[in-house]
Hints:
By secondary structure, this protein is α+β, with helices and mostly antiparallel strands. Among the domains are: 257-307, no CATH class; 308-596, Porin. It is built from 16 helices and 16 strands. The protein has a 16-stranded antiparallel β-barrel with strand order 1-2-3-4-5-6-7-8-9-10-11-12-13-14-15-16.
Amino acid sequence: MQSNLAALARTTSLWVTTILAMLLSAVVLAASDNNWTERGDRAAELIRSAESADTIAERNRLADDALAILDALIEHPDAPDDVIARSRFDRLLALRARESMDAVVEEYEALLEDGFDPPVWVTVAAADAHLYQRRPELALEFYQRALADAPDRQPTRQAMYWAYLESEDFRRAIELTDTLIQQAEPGSPEHQQASIAAAMVRAYANQLAEAQERLEAVVAEHPENREAARNLATIYRWRGWPHRALHHLEPLLEEAPEHTGNRLLHAGLLDDLGRYREAVELLDQLYADHPENRHVQRDWMGRQERRRWAMTLGGEYGESDGAQEFGSRDRSWDVRVDAPWIGHHLQPYARINYSDARFPEGESDYDRYGIGINYRRNRHHLYAEGHGNRTGASQAGVTVGYDWEVGDHWSFATRYESFSADVPLRGRLQGLDGWKAEAAVRWQAHESLSARVGVSRLAISDGNDRDAGLASLRHRLYTSAHHVTDGTLDAYYSRASQSGGPYYNPDSDASLVYVLQHDWMTWRRYEQSFTQRFVAGGGGYWQQHVGTDAIGLVRYEHLWQMSQRWFLHYGVGAASRVYDGDRETRIDGQLRLRGVF
Protein backbone atom coordinates (compact mmCIF):
# COMPACT_ATOMS: atom_id res chain seq x y z
CA MET A 1 0.00 0.00 0.00
CA GLN A 2 2.73 2.43 0.97
CA SER A 3 4.60 1.44 -2.18
CA ASN A 4 1.56 2.28 -4.30
CA LEU A 5 1.11 5.62 -2.56
CA ALA A 6 4.76 6.48 -3.12
CA ALA A 7 4.48 5.60 -6.78
CA LEU A 8 1.33 7.73 -7.11
CA ALA A 9 3.10 10.62 -5.38
CA ARG A 10 6.02 10.36 -7.72
CA THR A 11 3.69 10.28 -10.77
CA THR A 12 1.68 13.24 -9.50
CA SER A 13 4.85 15.20 -8.80
CA LEU A 14 6.10 14.48 -12.32
CA TRP A 15 2.84 15.68 -13.87
CA VAL A 16 2.80 18.81 -11.75
CA THR A 17 6.40 19.54 -12.66
CA THR A 18 5.64 19.02 -16.34
CA ILE A 19 2.57 21.24 -16.21
CA LEU A 20 4.46 23.97 -14.34
CA ALA A 21 7.28 23.79 -16.89
CA MET A 22 4.79 24.08 -19.71
CA LEU A 23 3.09 27.02 -18.04
CA LEU A 24 6.46 28.69 -17.47
CA SER A 25 7.43 28.14 -21.10
CA ALA A 26 4.13 29.62 -22.21
CA VAL A 27 4.65 32.65 -20.01
CA VAL A 28 8.21 33.11 -21.28
CA LEU A 29 7.09 32.68 -24.88
CA ALA A 30 4.25 35.15 -24.38
CA ALA A 31 6.66 37.65 -22.86
CA SER A 32 9.04 37.11 -25.76
CA ASP A 33 6.21 37.63 -28.29
CA ASN A 34 5.19 40.82 -26.53
CA ASN A 35 8.82 42.00 -26.70
CA TRP A 36 8.99 41.39 -30.47
CA THR A 37 5.74 43.26 -30.96
CA GLU A 38 6.73 46.16 -28.74
CA ARG A 39 10.07 46.60 -30.50
CA GLY A 40 8.42 46.45 -33.93
CA ASP A 41 5.78 48.97 -32.86
CA ARG A 42 8.50 51.24 -31.52
CA ALA A 43 10.33 51.14 -34.86
CA ALA A 44 7.09 51.93 -36.74
CA GLU A 45 6.45 54.87 -34.43
CA LEU A 46 9.95 56.22 -35.08
CA ILE A 47 9.41 55.95 -38.84
CA ARG A 48 6.14 57.92 -38.64
CA SER A 49 7.86 60.57 -36.56
CA ALA A 50 10.75 60.75 -39.03
CA GLU A 51 8.38 61.32 -41.96
CA SER A 52 6.86 64.34 -40.21
CA ALA A 53 10.01 65.67 -38.51
CA ASP A 54 10.56 69.44 -38.58
CA THR A 55 14.33 69.30 -39.05
CA ILE A 56 16.66 67.21 -41.16
CA ALA A 57 18.81 66.23 -38.21
CA GLU A 58 15.77 65.03 -36.28
CA ARG A 59 14.46 63.11 -39.29
CA ASN A 60 17.74 61.31 -39.85
CA ARG A 61 18.15 60.53 -36.16
CA LEU A 62 14.65 59.03 -35.93
CA ALA A 63 15.12 57.02 -39.12
CA ASP A 64 18.51 55.74 -37.94
CA ASP A 65 17.02 54.71 -34.57
CA ALA A 66 14.28 52.81 -36.39
CA LEU A 67 16.81 51.11 -38.65
CA ALA A 68 18.89 50.05 -35.64
CA ILE A 69 15.86 48.39 -34.00
CA LEU A 70 14.76 46.71 -37.23
CA ASP A 71 18.25 45.41 -38.07
CA ALA A 72 18.54 43.93 -34.58
CA LEU A 73 15.19 42.17 -34.98
CA ILE A 74 16.08 40.83 -38.44
CA GLU A 75 19.47 39.49 -37.27
CA HIS A 76 18.21 37.97 -33.99
CA PRO A 77 18.63 34.17 -34.19
CA ASP A 78 15.39 33.51 -32.26
CA ALA A 79 13.19 36.03 -34.10
CA PRO A 80 10.04 34.40 -35.53
CA ASP A 81 9.45 34.50 -39.29
CA ASP A 82 6.53 36.94 -39.03
CA VAL A 83 8.69 39.36 -37.02
CA ILE A 84 11.49 39.18 -39.58
CA ALA A 85 9.00 39.79 -42.40
CA ARG A 86 7.43 42.80 -40.72
CA SER A 87 10.85 44.21 -39.84
CA ARG A 88 12.10 43.90 -43.41
CA PHE A 89 8.95 45.58 -44.71
CA ASP A 90 9.27 48.46 -42.24
CA ARG A 91 12.92 48.82 -43.14
CA LEU A 92 11.93 50.05 -46.60
CA LEU A 93 9.87 52.83 -45.06
CA ALA A 94 12.76 53.87 -42.82
CA LEU A 95 15.11 54.00 -45.80
CA ARG A 96 12.60 56.05 -47.79
CA ALA A 97 12.21 58.49 -44.89
CA ARG A 98 15.98 58.93 -44.94
CA GLU A 99 15.93 59.52 -48.73
CA SER A 100 18.10 56.44 -49.38
CA MET A 101 16.17 55.54 -52.53
CA ASP A 102 18.81 53.26 -54.05
CA ALA A 103 18.69 51.18 -50.88
CA VAL A 104 14.87 51.06 -51.03
CA VAL A 105 14.98 49.55 -54.53
CA GLU A 106 17.70 47.07 -53.56
CA GLU A 107 15.79 46.00 -50.44
CA TYR A 108 12.57 45.47 -52.40
CA GLU A 109 14.33 43.30 -54.98
CA ALA A 110 15.93 41.31 -52.15
CA LEU A 111 12.48 40.70 -50.64
CA LEU A 112 11.23 39.23 -53.90
CA GLU A 113 14.35 37.09 -54.30
CA ASP A 114 13.88 35.73 -50.76
CA GLY A 115 10.30 34.71 -51.50
CA PHE A 116 8.45 37.40 -49.56
CA ASP A 117 5.12 38.79 -50.77
CA PRO A 118 5.38 42.53 -49.96
CA PRO A 119 2.17 44.24 -48.81
CA VAL A 120 0.69 47.20 -50.68
CA TRP A 121 2.41 49.90 -48.64
CA VAL A 122 5.81 48.32 -49.30
CA THR A 123 5.13 48.17 -53.04
CA VAL A 124 4.15 51.84 -52.93
CA ALA A 125 7.41 52.69 -51.17
CA ALA A 126 9.33 50.93 -53.97
CA ALA A 127 7.25 52.81 -56.56
CA ASP A 128 8.12 56.10 -54.84
CA ALA A 129 11.79 55.17 -55.00
CA HIS A 130 11.64 54.36 -58.74
CA LEU A 131 9.87 57.66 -59.39
CA TYR A 132 12.50 59.48 -57.37
CA GLN A 133 15.20 57.78 -59.46
CA ARG A 134 13.53 59.02 -62.68
CA ARG A 135 11.96 55.78 -63.77
CA PRO A 136 8.32 56.93 -64.03
CA GLU A 137 7.15 54.11 -66.32
CA LEU A 138 8.42 51.50 -63.84
CA ALA A 139 6.92 53.47 -60.96
CA LEU A 140 3.53 53.38 -62.73
CA GLU A 141 3.74 49.59 -62.95
CA PHE A 142 4.34 49.39 -59.20
CA TYR A 143 1.52 51.81 -58.38
CA GLN A 144 -0.88 49.87 -60.61
CA ARG A 145 0.22 46.62 -58.96
CA ALA A 146 -0.52 48.16 -55.57
CA LEU A 147 -3.93 49.43 -56.71
CA ALA A 148 -4.83 45.98 -57.99
CA ASP A 149 -4.55 44.74 -54.38
CA ALA A 150 -6.07 47.86 -52.76
CA PRO A 151 -8.08 49.83 -55.35
CA ASP A 152 -9.47 52.32 -52.82
CA ARG A 153 -6.13 53.33 -51.30
CA GLN A 154 -6.08 57.11 -51.83
CA PRO A 155 -2.37 57.81 -51.12
CA THR A 156 -1.40 55.42 -53.91
CA ARG A 157 -3.70 57.11 -56.40
CA GLN A 158 -2.40 60.52 -55.37
CA ALA A 159 1.19 59.39 -55.88
CA MET A 160 0.36 58.08 -59.35
CA TYR A 161 -0.26 61.54 -60.74
CA TRP A 162 3.43 62.38 -60.35
CA ALA A 163 4.32 59.29 -62.37
CA TYR A 164 1.89 60.37 -65.09
CA LEU A 165 3.40 63.86 -65.07
CA GLU A 166 6.96 62.64 -65.42
CA SER A 167 5.86 60.29 -68.19
CA GLU A 168 4.44 63.36 -70.01
CA ASP A 169 0.90 61.95 -69.80
CA PHE A 170 -0.81 65.12 -68.63
CA ARG A 171 -4.29 64.06 -69.71
CA ARG A 172 -4.35 61.08 -67.36
CA ALA A 173 -2.77 63.12 -64.58
CA ILE A 174 -5.54 65.71 -64.81
CA GLU A 175 -8.26 63.06 -65.00
CA LEU A 176 -6.85 61.27 -61.96
CA THR A 177 -6.63 64.37 -59.76
CA ASP A 178 -10.12 65.51 -60.76
CA THR A 179 -11.47 62.06 -59.84
CA LEU A 180 -9.74 62.22 -56.47
CA ILE A 181 -11.43 65.55 -55.75
CA GLN A 182 -14.84 64.13 -56.60
CA GLN A 183 -14.36 61.08 -54.39
CA ALA A 184 -13.05 62.92 -51.33
CA GLU A 185 -15.24 64.54 -48.70
CA PRO A 186 -15.16 68.36 -49.13
CA GLY A 187 -12.84 69.98 -46.61
CA SER A 188 -11.17 66.72 -45.60
CA PRO A 189 -7.37 66.34 -45.71
CA GLU A 190 -7.81 64.03 -48.70
CA HIS A 191 -9.86 66.66 -50.52
CA GLN A 192 -7.25 69.34 -49.80
CA GLN A 193 -4.43 67.11 -51.03
CA ALA A 194 -6.31 66.25 -54.21
CA SER A 195 -7.13 69.92 -54.83
CA ILE A 196 -3.45 70.85 -54.50
CA ALA A 197 -2.47 68.05 -56.88
CA ALA A 198 -5.11 69.13 -59.41
CA ALA A 199 -3.80 72.69 -59.31
CA MET A 200 -0.16 71.72 -59.71
CA VAL A 201 -0.74 69.32 -62.59
CA ARG A 202 -2.33 72.22 -64.44
CA ALA A 203 0.64 74.41 -63.59
CA TYR A 204 3.00 71.83 -65.09
CA ALA A 205 0.71 71.82 -68.15
CA ASN A 206 1.34 75.59 -68.53
CA GLN A 207 -2.12 76.55 -67.23
CA LEU A 208 -0.74 78.87 -64.57
CA ALA A 209 -3.74 81.18 -64.22
CA GLU A 210 -6.07 78.28 -63.41
CA ALA A 211 -3.51 76.74 -61.04
CA GLN A 212 -3.23 80.07 -59.20
CA GLU A 213 -7.02 80.37 -58.89
CA ARG A 214 -7.37 76.84 -57.51
CA LEU A 215 -4.56 77.21 -54.96
CA GLU A 216 -5.78 80.60 -53.76
CA ALA A 217 -9.16 78.98 -53.08
CA VAL A 218 -7.53 76.21 -51.00
CA VAL A 219 -5.40 78.70 -49.03
CA ALA A 220 -8.40 80.94 -48.38
CA GLU A 221 -10.43 78.02 -47.03
CA HIS A 222 -7.56 76.28 -45.23
CA PRO A 223 -4.94 78.90 -44.24
CA GLU A 224 -3.19 76.31 -42.06
CA ASN A 225 -2.32 74.15 -45.08
CA ARG A 226 1.40 74.79 -45.57
CA GLU A 227 1.69 72.70 -48.71
CA ALA A 228 -0.99 74.74 -50.49
CA ALA A 229 0.66 77.99 -49.42
CA ARG A 230 4.11 76.86 -50.61
CA ASN A 231 2.77 75.74 -53.98
CA LEU A 232 0.95 79.03 -54.38
CA ALA A 233 4.24 80.86 -53.82
CA THR A 234 5.76 78.63 -56.50
CA ILE A 235 3.02 79.62 -58.95
CA TYR A 236 3.63 83.30 -58.19
CA ARG A 237 7.28 82.75 -59.06
CA TRP A 238 6.47 80.95 -62.30
CA ARG A 239 4.18 83.81 -63.31
CA GLY A 240 7.09 86.25 -63.00
CA TRP A 241 6.34 87.70 -59.55
CA PRO A 242 9.35 86.91 -57.31
CA HIS A 243 8.61 89.72 -54.84
CA ARG A 244 5.06 88.52 -54.34
CA ALA A 245 6.22 84.92 -54.04
CA LEU A 246 8.83 85.75 -51.39
CA HIS A 247 6.32 87.78 -49.38
CA HIS A 248 3.97 84.78 -49.45
CA LEU A 249 6.75 82.33 -48.51
CA GLU A 250 8.22 84.23 -45.56
CA PRO A 251 5.62 83.07 -42.96
CA LEU A 252 6.25 79.46 -43.99
CA LEU A 253 9.99 79.94 -43.51
CA GLU A 254 9.35 81.18 -39.98
CA GLU A 255 7.06 78.24 -39.17
CA ALA A 256 9.21 75.51 -40.76
CA PRO A 257 12.71 76.87 -41.47
CA GLU A 258 14.17 73.39 -42.09
CA HIS A 259 11.55 72.24 -44.61
CA THR A 260 13.40 71.23 -47.79
CA GLY A 261 10.72 72.46 -50.18
CA ASN A 262 10.53 75.85 -48.47
CA ARG A 263 14.30 76.24 -48.55
CA LEU A 264 14.61 75.25 -52.21
CA LEU A 265 11.94 77.74 -53.23
CA HIS A 266 13.59 80.39 -51.05
CA ALA A 267 16.95 79.81 -52.78
CA GLY A 268 15.33 80.12 -56.20
CA LEU A 269 13.63 83.37 -55.27
CA LEU A 270 16.83 84.82 -53.85
CA ASP A 271 18.50 84.03 -57.16
CA ASP A 272 15.64 85.64 -59.12
CA LEU A 273 16.01 88.77 -57.02
CA GLY A 274 19.75 89.04 -57.60
CA ARG A 275 20.68 88.10 -54.03
CA TYR A 276 23.23 85.64 -55.30
CA ARG A 277 25.41 85.27 -52.22
CA GLU A 278 22.44 84.30 -50.06
CA ALA A 279 21.17 81.89 -52.73
CA VAL A 280 24.54 80.14 -53.03
CA GLU A 281 24.97 79.81 -49.26
CA LEU A 282 21.48 78.35 -48.88
CA LEU A 283 21.94 75.86 -51.73
CA ASP A 284 25.33 74.77 -50.41
CA GLN A 285 23.75 74.07 -47.03
CA LEU A 286 20.86 72.22 -48.64
CA TYR A 287 23.27 70.07 -50.62
CA ALA A 288 25.22 69.27 -47.47
CA ASP A 289 21.98 68.25 -45.74
CA HIS A 290 20.41 66.39 -48.71
CA PRO A 291 23.18 65.13 -51.03
CA GLU A 292 20.88 62.41 -52.42
CA ASN A 293 17.84 64.63 -53.02
CA ARG A 294 17.24 64.94 -56.78
CA HIS A 295 15.65 68.39 -56.54
CA VAL A 296 18.47 69.70 -54.39
CA GLN A 297 21.05 68.18 -56.76
CA ARG A 298 19.41 69.86 -59.77
CA ASP A 299 19.29 73.34 -58.25
CA TRP A 300 22.73 73.06 -56.67
CA MET A 301 24.31 71.92 -59.94
CA GLY A 302 22.54 74.75 -61.75
CA ARG A 303 24.22 77.25 -59.45
CA GLN A 304 27.58 75.62 -60.09
CA GLU A 305 27.35 76.86 -63.67
CA ARG A 306 28.29 80.30 -62.39
CA ARG A 307 31.62 78.79 -61.38
CA ARG A 308 32.28 77.42 -64.88
CA TRP A 309 33.15 78.77 -68.29
CA ALA A 310 30.32 79.23 -70.77
CA MET A 311 30.33 79.69 -74.54
CA THR A 312 27.73 80.90 -77.01
CA LEU A 313 28.32 80.40 -80.73
CA GLY A 314 25.93 81.70 -83.40
CA GLY A 315 25.87 82.11 -87.15
CA GLU A 316 23.53 83.23 -89.93
CA TYR A 317 23.62 83.20 -93.72
CA GLY A 318 21.15 84.93 -96.00
CA GLU A 319 20.48 85.15 -99.71
CA SER A 320 18.57 88.14 -101.09
CA ASP A 321 17.16 89.07 -104.46
CA GLY A 322 15.63 92.27 -105.75
CA ALA A 323 16.69 95.37 -103.81
CA GLN A 324 20.32 95.61 -102.70
CA GLU A 325 19.88 98.11 -99.88
CA PHE A 326 21.13 95.70 -97.23
CA GLY A 327 23.30 93.55 -99.45
CA SER A 328 23.12 90.02 -100.76
CA ARG A 329 24.81 86.85 -99.55
CA ASP A 330 25.09 88.36 -96.11
CA ARG A 331 26.85 86.42 -93.38
CA SER A 332 27.35 86.89 -89.68
CA TRP A 333 28.73 84.93 -86.80
CA ASP A 334 29.53 85.67 -83.20
CA VAL A 335 31.34 83.92 -80.38
CA ARG A 336 31.07 84.88 -76.76
CA VAL A 337 32.98 83.28 -73.88
CA ASP A 338 31.84 84.02 -70.34
CA ALA A 339 34.36 83.47 -67.55
CA PRO A 340 33.39 82.09 -64.13
CA TRP A 341 31.87 84.66 -61.84
CA ILE A 342 34.20 86.54 -59.54
CA GLY A 343 32.65 86.45 -56.11
CA HIS A 344 28.92 86.59 -56.67
CA HIS A 345 28.40 89.68 -58.81
CA LEU A 346 31.20 90.19 -61.39
CA GLN A 347 31.61 88.23 -64.61
CA PRO A 348 34.26 88.98 -67.28
CA TYR A 349 33.61 88.00 -70.88
CA ALA A 350 35.17 88.19 -74.33
CA ARG A 351 33.45 88.23 -77.70
CA ILE A 352 34.06 88.28 -81.43
CA ASN A 353 31.46 89.49 -83.96
CA TYR A 354 31.74 89.31 -87.70
CA SER A 355 29.29 90.33 -90.41
CA ASP A 356 29.60 91.06 -94.11
CA ALA A 357 27.46 91.52 -97.21
CA ARG A 358 27.86 92.14 -100.94
CA PHE A 359 26.69 95.37 -102.53
CA PRO A 360 26.81 96.57 -106.14
CA GLU A 361 29.82 98.71 -105.28
CA GLY A 362 31.68 96.01 -103.36
CA GLU A 363 31.81 93.94 -100.17
CA SER A 364 31.72 95.45 -96.68
CA ASP A 365 32.22 93.94 -93.24
CA TYR A 366 32.51 94.37 -89.50
CA ASP A 367 35.16 92.28 -87.75
CA ARG A 368 34.96 93.19 -84.10
CA TYR A 369 36.49 91.85 -80.92
CA GLY A 370 35.72 93.02 -77.40
CA ILE A 371 36.37 92.41 -73.71
CA GLY A 372 33.85 93.35 -71.08
CA ILE A 373 32.52 92.78 -67.60
CA ASN A 374 29.04 92.31 -66.12
CA TYR A 375 27.94 93.41 -62.67
CA ARG A 376 24.65 92.00 -61.35
CA ARG A 377 23.16 92.58 -57.93
CA ASN A 378 19.67 93.01 -56.52
CA ARG A 379 18.15 93.08 -60.03
CA HIS A 380 20.53 95.81 -61.19
CA HIS A 381 22.70 94.96 -64.19
CA LEU A 382 25.60 97.13 -65.33
CA TYR A 383 28.02 96.21 -68.09
CA ALA A 384 30.92 97.80 -69.92
CA GLU A 385 32.82 96.57 -72.95
CA GLY A 386 35.81 97.86 -74.88
CA HIS A 387 36.08 96.77 -78.50
CA GLY A 388 37.90 97.35 -81.77
CA ASN A 389 37.90 96.17 -85.37
CA ARG A 390 40.43 93.92 -87.02
CA THR A 391 39.67 95.20 -90.54
CA GLY A 392 39.64 98.75 -91.88
CA ALA A 393 40.26 101.59 -89.46
CA SER A 394 40.81 100.58 -85.86
CA GLN A 395 37.69 102.45 -84.72
CA ALA A 396 38.02 101.39 -81.11
CA GLY A 397 34.95 102.02 -79.02
CA VAL A 398 33.12 101.32 -75.81
CA THR A 399 29.68 99.98 -75.00
CA VAL A 400 28.03 100.59 -71.63
CA GLY A 401 24.59 99.70 -70.38
CA TYR A 402 22.37 99.63 -67.34
CA ASP A 403 19.26 97.50 -66.80
CA TRP A 404 17.00 97.67 -63.77
CA GLU A 405 14.04 95.50 -62.76
CA VAL A 406 11.60 97.25 -60.45
CA GLY A 407 9.13 95.12 -58.55
CA ASP A 408 7.34 92.32 -60.34
CA HIS A 409 6.08 94.24 -63.34
CA TRP A 410 8.46 96.95 -64.56
CA SER A 411 11.96 96.93 -66.01
CA PHE A 412 14.14 99.54 -67.69
CA ALA A 413 17.12 99.25 -70.02
CA THR A 414 19.63 101.76 -71.39
CA ARG A 415 22.60 101.29 -73.70
CA TYR A 416 25.25 103.44 -75.36
CA GLU A 417 27.76 102.44 -78.08
CA SER A 418 30.48 104.89 -79.05
CA PHE A 419 31.06 102.96 -82.28
CA SER A 420 27.90 101.15 -83.26
CA ALA A 421 27.65 98.04 -85.41
CA ASP A 422 24.19 99.34 -86.41
CA VAL A 423 25.78 101.83 -88.78
CA PRO A 424 24.73 100.38 -92.17
CA LEU A 425 27.30 98.04 -93.69
CA ARG A 426 26.88 99.84 -96.98
CA GLY A 427 27.98 103.07 -95.29
CA ARG A 428 31.13 101.33 -94.08
CA LEU A 429 32.32 101.25 -97.69
CA GLN A 430 32.48 105.06 -97.49
CA GLY A 431 34.32 105.01 -94.15
CA LEU A 432 31.27 106.02 -92.09
CA ASP A 433 30.85 105.21 -88.41
CA GLY A 434 28.67 106.52 -85.60
CA TRP A 435 27.33 106.17 -82.09
CA LYS A 436 24.02 104.86 -80.85
CA ALA A 437 22.01 105.42 -77.67
CA GLU A 438 18.82 103.63 -76.75
CA ALA A 439 16.42 103.22 -73.86
CA ALA A 440 13.43 100.97 -73.25
CA VAL A 441 10.80 100.29 -70.64
CA ARG A 442 8.97 96.98 -70.28
CA TRP A 443 5.81 96.13 -68.41
CA GLN A 444 4.82 92.53 -67.69
CA ALA A 445 1.47 91.60 -66.23
CA HIS A 446 2.40 87.92 -66.07
CA GLU A 447 3.88 85.21 -68.27
CA SER A 448 1.10 85.66 -70.85
CA LEU A 449 0.98 89.43 -71.33
CA SER A 450 3.72 92.06 -71.65
CA ALA A 451 4.43 95.32 -73.46
CA ARG A 452 7.61 97.18 -74.35
CA VAL A 453 8.38 100.68 -75.60
CA GLY A 454 11.81 101.74 -76.79
CA VAL A 455 13.50 104.74 -78.39
CA SER A 456 16.92 105.09 -80.01
CA ARG A 457 19.19 107.51 -81.86
CA LEU A 458 21.84 106.43 -84.33
CA ALA A 459 24.20 109.34 -85.09
CA ILE A 460 26.16 108.59 -88.29
CA SER A 461 29.42 110.41 -88.97
CA ASP A 462 28.03 111.98 -92.18
CA GLY A 463 25.82 114.17 -89.99
CA ASN A 464 22.66 112.11 -90.30
CA ASP A 465 20.83 111.32 -87.08
CA ARG A 466 18.25 108.58 -87.30
CA ASP A 467 15.67 108.52 -84.48
CA ALA A 468 13.43 105.49 -84.02
CA GLY A 469 10.71 104.23 -81.72
CA LEU A 470 9.30 100.75 -81.25
CA ALA A 471 6.22 99.63 -79.34
CA SER A 472 5.51 95.95 -78.86
CA LEU A 473 2.66 94.00 -77.27
CA ARG A 474 2.94 90.25 -76.65
CA HIS A 475 0.05 88.08 -75.55
CA ARG A 476 -0.50 84.36 -75.20
CA LEU A 477 -3.24 82.90 -77.36
CA TYR A 478 -3.12 79.23 -76.46
CA THR A 479 -1.30 77.04 -73.99
CA SER A 480 -1.23 73.36 -73.07
CA ALA A 481 1.30 70.90 -71.75
CA HIS A 482 3.19 70.68 -75.04
CA HIS A 483 1.86 73.58 -77.14
CA VAL A 484 2.24 77.33 -76.63
CA THR A 485 1.10 79.98 -79.09
CA ASP A 486 2.06 83.65 -78.69
CA GLY A 487 1.07 86.66 -80.71
CA THR A 488 3.18 89.84 -80.93
CA LEU A 489 2.14 93.19 -82.39
CA ASP A 490 5.07 95.46 -83.31
CA ALA A 491 4.73 99.09 -84.30
CA TYR A 492 7.85 100.90 -85.58
CA TYR A 493 8.60 104.45 -86.71
CA SER A 494 11.84 106.22 -87.66
CA ARG A 495 12.95 109.44 -89.29
CA ALA A 496 16.23 110.87 -90.56
CA SER A 497 17.64 114.32 -89.93
CA GLN A 498 18.88 114.56 -93.52
CA SER A 499 18.01 112.92 -96.80
CA GLY A 500 20.09 110.71 -99.03
CA GLY A 501 23.38 109.05 -98.28
CA PRO A 502 25.24 105.96 -99.54
CA TYR A 503 22.85 103.61 -97.70
CA TYR A 504 19.13 103.04 -97.26
CA ASN A 505 17.86 106.20 -95.55
CA PRO A 506 14.17 107.05 -95.98
CA ASP A 507 13.14 110.47 -94.70
CA SER A 508 10.70 108.61 -92.47
CA ASP A 509 9.16 105.17 -92.44
CA ALA A 510 6.90 103.01 -90.30
CA SER A 511 5.67 99.45 -90.04
CA LEU A 512 2.94 97.53 -88.27
CA VAL A 513 3.44 93.76 -88.07
CA TYR A 514 1.67 90.95 -86.25
CA VAL A 515 3.66 87.74 -85.69
CA LEU A 516 2.40 84.36 -84.51
CA GLN A 517 4.82 81.93 -82.88
CA HIS A 518 3.85 78.38 -82.01
CA ASP A 519 6.17 76.15 -79.96
CA TRP A 520 5.46 72.43 -79.99
CA MET A 521 7.45 70.52 -77.40
CA THR A 522 7.59 67.31 -79.36
CA TRP A 523 9.62 65.31 -76.85
CA ARG A 524 10.88 65.79 -73.30
CA ARG A 525 12.70 63.68 -70.77
CA TYR A 526 13.54 65.71 -67.68
CA GLU A 527 16.32 68.18 -68.65
CA GLN A 528 16.36 66.97 -72.27
CA SER A 529 13.78 68.17 -74.78
CA PHE A 530 13.09 68.80 -78.45
CA THR A 531 10.83 71.66 -79.54
CA GLN A 532 9.64 72.60 -83.00
CA ARG A 533 8.94 76.30 -83.57
CA PHE A 534 6.70 77.73 -86.27
CA VAL A 535 6.66 81.48 -86.95
CA ALA A 536 4.50 83.44 -89.40
CA GLY A 537 3.81 87.13 -89.58
CA GLY A 538 2.59 89.87 -91.81
CA GLY A 539 1.69 93.52 -91.94
CA GLY A 540 2.38 96.74 -93.75
CA TYR A 541 5.39 98.97 -94.34
CA TRP A 542 5.08 102.68 -95.14
CA GLN A 543 7.85 104.87 -96.58
CA GLN A 544 7.57 108.59 -97.05
CA HIS A 545 7.28 109.60 -100.73
CA VAL A 546 6.81 105.94 -101.71
CA GLY A 547 3.69 104.62 -99.99
CA THR A 548 2.59 101.44 -98.25
CA ASP A 549 3.24 97.81 -99.18
CA ALA A 550 2.63 94.44 -97.59
CA ILE A 551 5.45 92.62 -95.83
CA GLY A 552 5.65 89.13 -94.33
CA LEU A 553 7.82 86.39 -92.92
CA VAL A 554 7.81 82.66 -92.13
CA ARG A 555 10.26 80.57 -90.10
CA TYR A 556 10.74 76.98 -88.98
CA GLU A 557 13.17 76.13 -86.15
CA HIS A 558 14.36 73.30 -83.92
CA LEU A 559 15.33 73.82 -80.29
CA TRP A 560 17.28 71.04 -78.59
CA GLN A 561 17.86 71.10 -74.83
CA MET A 562 20.53 68.41 -74.88
CA SER A 563 21.27 68.56 -71.16
CA GLN A 564 21.11 71.01 -68.31
CA ARG A 565 24.25 72.67 -69.74
CA TRP A 566 24.01 72.36 -73.53
CA PHE A 567 21.47 73.92 -75.90
CA LEU A 568 21.24 73.86 -79.71
CA HIS A 569 18.97 76.06 -81.83
CA TYR A 570 18.78 76.19 -85.61
CA GLY A 571 16.25 77.13 -88.28
CA VAL A 572 15.44 78.51 -91.70
CA GLY A 573 13.24 81.40 -92.74
CA ALA A 574 12.05 83.65 -95.52
CA ALA A 575 10.98 87.28 -95.46
CA SER A 576 9.57 89.67 -98.04
CA ARG A 577 10.03 93.43 -97.62
CA VAL A 578 9.99 96.59 -99.74
CA TYR A 579 12.71 99.27 -99.97
CA ASP A 580 12.20 102.41 -102.08
CA GLY A 581 9.30 100.60 -103.73
CA ASP A 582 11.39 97.58 -104.75
CA ARG A 583 10.50 94.21 -103.22
CA GLU A 584 13.22 92.04 -101.73
CA THR A 585 12.91 88.40 -100.72
CA ARG A 586 15.46 87.01 -98.32
CA ILE A 587 16.00 83.38 -97.36
CA ASP A 588 18.22 82.62 -94.37
CA GLY A 589 19.53 79.88 -92.14
CA GLN A 590 20.56 80.28 -88.51
CA LEU A 591 22.47 78.20 -85.97
CA ARG A 592 23.15 78.82 -82.28
CA LEU A 593 24.90 76.67 -79.69
CA ARG A 594 25.33 77.38 -75.99
CA GLY A 595 27.23 75.29 -73.49
CA VAL A 596 28.69 75.36 -70.01
CA PHE A 597 31.90 73.42 -69.45
